[in-house]
Amino acid sequence: MSVVDKLPGRSSRSARTRERALRSDIPPMDGAWTPNEDLDGPPALWSGPGPVDVLPLGDGAAVVVGDSRLETVVAADPASRRLLIDLETTVTAACAFGDDIALATTGGILLVTQTGVLRQGPRLPDATFGHVTALASDPSGSLWVAVGSSVRTTEEWQTDLLIRGRTGSVLRIDPGASDAVLVADGLEWPSGLLPDDSGCIVSEAWAHRLIRVDDHGRTVLQDDLPGYPGQLSAVPGGGAWLSLFAPRSALVDFVMKEERYKEEMIRTLEARAWVAPQLRTLHHPVEQVQGGELLVFGQMKPWAPTRSYGLIARLDENGRALYSHHSRANGSRHGIVRSVEDGDRLWVVSRGSGEVFSLDRTGPELGEGQ
After folding, report:
1. What is the tens place of the pLDDT at every residue in 235-275?
2. Does residue 185 lie in a domain region?
3. For residue 234, what are the domain limits?
4. pTM of the full predicted structure?
5. Which of 154, 170, 279, 329 could bridge 306 with an S-S bond, Cβ 3.0-4.6 Å?
């Protein structure tokens, strides 16, 4: 018990209450999650504002989906990037859909051919426009849709986290259907989808877990992840890649429990000054800094507390992490929103740094054996 707790009016019960509030239940990054700097080494193959996704085309080529444009890039010659289409709406999610590319935008679902022809896609309820966090297609041709929140757009994800929103849902649009089918609701910001013949694995970000939804209900596959899980992509032969777009933080968890402080912070401060996860380090005067983040000899230590981080993990068939790739506190490739395997190449999208790059899979597995 501290000296303060011994003062008149301070009970051991209040001390225990404060201790529970301050306790962090965030799992340590060790074992398969042991930190490394794998993501900071490869050269950028594409750079620009707001990358959303990357869709491999094979032979080292891919379509990079930005906030409002699509471009093709070839890994062997990054300077050869070519505009596929410019859009007059903002893209929030994308996926391959048959021979086309499906885009979730603030104006609904759009389909783009590989030659840049645009047409209207499957119909979604108007209330979901701007709220879609992930798209995925299954073997039957159905389009799966993750809606992060029914009341907040994808730009308001920090607000939804701080108030612990539970209004997310997963929809499915079957071939030839005129309306979407509600598969699951009451979710805490679903932000990644991996469907198969009988159901779908869903990243539930604010709950730090992966769940499976199917005709039998919901099953938790993996919980207590060290970050906020986002997009999922299948791996040939089984398993998946999981992108975690921000790290969990004991400081953020503490602020989320302090209702009056949290409400005042949201009401009076601009979002970049909030105690909340970020997709990148802002280096702005209003950004709060913890003691461990102070520069030492002009450098930030890689183990410093941070509100942004770069993290992807290779999962086995049961959703357990086998190994992972990182960009630590002193790195720049944070806010990873997609990692997808294509032959010997792993394409990675860092929204924080505004880059698309790739990891070479031909040598020993980076991060494997941790």
Report:
1. 999 999 999 999 999 999 999 999 999 999 999 999 988 99
2. yes
3. 35-360
4. 0.89
5. 329
